[in-house]
Design brief:
With 97 residues, this protein is mainly alpha-helical. It has a domain of 38 residues: Histone, subunit A (Orthogonal Bundle). The chain has a two-stranded antiparallel sheet with strand order 1-2. β1 and β2 form a beta hairpin. α1 crosses α2. It is flat, with a radius of gyration of 27 Å.
């Protein structure tokens, strides 16, 4: 199959991504990206009629526990180890002017 990506296209993509690539890397990535696109072309030739769409190849279920209301910290407990507080809140350095 013909190469779909040439080194000039890789150079352009690398420039847009602000990545510096050597000449050898341009050739290497052009070949790898072409192989990926060729593989995608092969996959598009498959007959997928009647195949259910999936998000995961294995049947999985949620393994998280149920949410349960529990004991909470009081404001005093939550702020006990804070380096700085302002009333009932954590005091942090200003990040926006």
């Amino acid at each position: 199959m013909p190469a779909k990506i040439d080194p000039d296209q890789v150079r352009r993509i690398a420039r847009l991504a602000r990545i510096n690539l050597t000449t050898d890397e341009l050739e290497q990535f052009a070949g790898q990206l072409s192989d990926i696109l060729n593989y995608i072309d092969q996959l598009s030739e498959l007959n997928t009629e009647g195949v259910e769409p999936t998000t995961h190849p294995l049947k999985i279920s949620n393994v998280f526990r149920q949410d349960q209301i529990g004991q909470s910290l009081s404001n005093e407990q939550a702020l006990a180890n804070a380096p700085r507080t302002h009333g009932d809140f954590f005091a942090v350095p200003k990040v926006l002017e």
